[in-house]
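Mods, move this if it's the wrong board.
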Amino acid sequence: MTTPDETTTDRVDTQPDGVAKGAGPEEIKADIERTRAELGQTVEALSSKLDVKAQARRMAADGKVRANELATRVQASATDRQGKPVATVWFGLGGMLVAGAAVAVLLAWKRRR
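Not the wrong board. Structure tokens:
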């Protein structure tokens, strides 16, 4: 068990405030500037985490990018080299149309009951 008086070798050359023993004014100023910069980065990181509107804007922008990428991939896979729709696209659209009509009929039927 260590006592409060025992120190590790990396702390021997520093004072409790983290400044090296015998440090000159320039070293102390540099340490202060370094600490200020670190504190500024920390405050900036915390501020960005707490800014809900900015987070929502970033998420919306990311969603738009993903949607555009998906649309591009779907369009590329749904057309042939001349840009004409592939036959499977027409079958898929027809299937969705039939499914939508079936859902509409079922909803209308349930309302009447």
